[in-house]
Amino acid sequence: VKTFNFQFTSSKHEMGKSLNNSVAQKIYVEVNNTVPCVRLLNATHQIGCQSSISGDTGVIHVLESEADLEWPLTKGPNPPYMILLESHLFTRSIMMKIKKESSRIAGVTVVVPNTSPSEFSPHTTCPNENTGVYSDTYGPHLAHCNTTVWNPLGNGLSYEEFDFPVFSLKEDKQCYYDHNRVVNGSAPQYPLCAMQLFSHMFAVTDTATCMRRNDVINFSINPEMVCDPLGDFNVWGSIRPYNRSQLGHRDNESVVMAAARLDSRAFFWDVSTGAEGSISGFVTLLAAAHALRDVTQVAPPTHNILFAFFQGEAFDYIGSSRMVYDMQNGKFVIDLDNVHSLLEIGQVGLRNGSDLFLHSDPRYRCSLIHRHHPGVSQPLPPSSLQRFLRAQNIPGIVLADHRAAFNNKYYESYYDNADNLNLRYPPNMTAEEQLEFLTDTAMALTEVATVVARALYKQAGGDGTQVDNIKADSKTVTQMLFGFLVQANNSWFQALIPPELKDMLSDPPDFYVGVASSSPAKAKPLTRLVQFLLANLTGTATNLTQDQCQKPDDLPDESVQMYSYLWVQGTVPHNGTEKGPFCVRASVRLSQALSPAFDLGEYASRNYSTWTESRWKFIKARIFLVASRDLEMLTLGVGVAVLFSSLLVTYFISTKADVLFSSAREPASAAY
Known about the structure:
With 672 residues, this protein is α/β, with parallel strands linked by helices. It has 17 helices and 23 strands. The chain has helices at residues 2-27, 70-75, 92-100, 174-179, 207-217, 275-298, 318-328, 385-391, 431-436, 440-459, 474-485, 491-495, 525-538, 546-550, 596-600, 629-655, 657-660; strands at residues 29-30, 35-36, 40-41, 46-49, 56-63, 81-86, 105-111, 161-162, 166-169, 192-198, 227-229, 231-238, 255-261, 304-310, 339-345, 357-359, 396-400, 540-542, 564-568, 582-586, 588-594, 612-614, 620-626. Strands 1-23-10-5-6-7-9-2 form an 8-stranded mixed β-sheet. A 7-stranded mixed β-sheet has the order 16-17-15-13-14-12-21, sandwiched between helices. Strand 3 and strand 4 (46-49) form a beta hairpin. Helix 6 (275-298) crosses helix 10 (440-459) and helix 6 (275-298) packs parallel to helix 13 (525-538). Keywords: Glycoprotein, Membrane, Notch signaling pathway, Signal, Transmembrane, Transmembrane helix. Belongs to the nicastrin family. Pfam families: Ncstrn_small, Nicastrin. Its main location: membrane. One of its GO terms (biological process) is protein processing.
């Protein structure tokens, strides 16, 4: 009986759930391919967007020009409105007008175009201005972009707070044209097309507040965090391995560092690309590391060369500040005193001709590459090098394609994509043909990678007679550009990773740093991919079996303290269809890229990044037809009338039940 009752209850629950879903499907149409703007917080404030806890609903109004704002903001008779606008109208001027009159606005949706606008950067004009080397006490005349505005096109939208949801979508506007379009200034007739957006954020105020709430929630019966620190893992490797168990200063050790940033960001969550902003730099550095593999084995330089790829640099230098902190506190394989010099590869994909520019701190000059120097009065551009200089005077330069302001017209935006780097392929090519096609962009970055590799080798004290033999591989560069900007799930990337990680090859890859994880196995797909790329490009293919690759310490000549051992799928042989897997031995590691502020509990820190991302329950968008207010009130009135009528009828029947339902009394039985 118990089993029967349980099954009956469960079946009834499923029936009710199915009925509810069926009704909802008849009312609502789910909008796919949507991406929200989410809430981020730091030491002082919150930015981003959110909906109310039950979602925000409004009648859709398509904005065709800035003049059309008058209808939803003042004239329209059916507020609140859900404004749908084309990307060229997604400007600071329009968004701030909407924000000012937000009482009549339920939310904003931005249609993603097939082509890029002439320019768009939602970042600030002076990126990371409060956490670099320049401050009121160190080079005050150079701080806050006083002498050079690096991103003059920045409109700052990514750092504004909106108390309504903002989504991007790829759907068309047919529902609006069928039901809501204003004709000759007259209001449209009901039913009207409406949209509902759900993006309620749990965290509020600032990072200190949300982290304090996290601490309180940890003691509750059902803990549910409200925010998480941004962060991930840095990728680093060296031409000569370091014993990972020996941390801190190394006597008689001098290291030339080469660095690039991995991450990017955009206004909308999880859709950043960073073609010029980050990919051009780290692809160049990967190609340079590859070019140095053979020559450093034949003629090792005097100094070691360490390649570092930093995560979270878009958010106040999370990755580089963490590596500097670890070096200062004996938690890395070297310390700052071991760093001989540092070369950082910045934005190098939009050169004018062959021009490259060297940027360095005007008070501490260093010459690594014979290229144009922008001038002694100009500060460093936003760069990881600033975090090293903030801790210690280290000779260093930033290599870039711009003398002053960025050449990148789409800095930290969705439009910093393959088109921005002029990555072009002939028509009718298959994906595999595009993978092998040598583009002009790839050839240009190959030249830069060759210059970088040669400069690093000479700076590290390498044999001068070997310099001309150092050349970056253009095929490798073109394959990396295709993988990071067009299609990550390709045969070359597949060959460089383990079979079990093939699902991480999403298209396109995501360059937003996201929230931090404590396990390297849960590092972002981009980080893991760069880790395997660096290992394959700088490491050695071994004859170890898969079991030996997983337990190399069982072998006399192998050591996990010195090397990483990675089992990869390998390429497809010419005479067969099965891949040839093998074990790669490389001195490539992951190190934590979490701001020291969270280890120190300094959530209001002004020295380190304090960025966190709010948690949310779910993200959803849907459209439906809404009836007029008069019809809704009429329906409500009829419903109330029916309710009271039924109550009266029920009361009457209950009071007269003995009369209405009594039966005639049977006569007494007769006795015979």
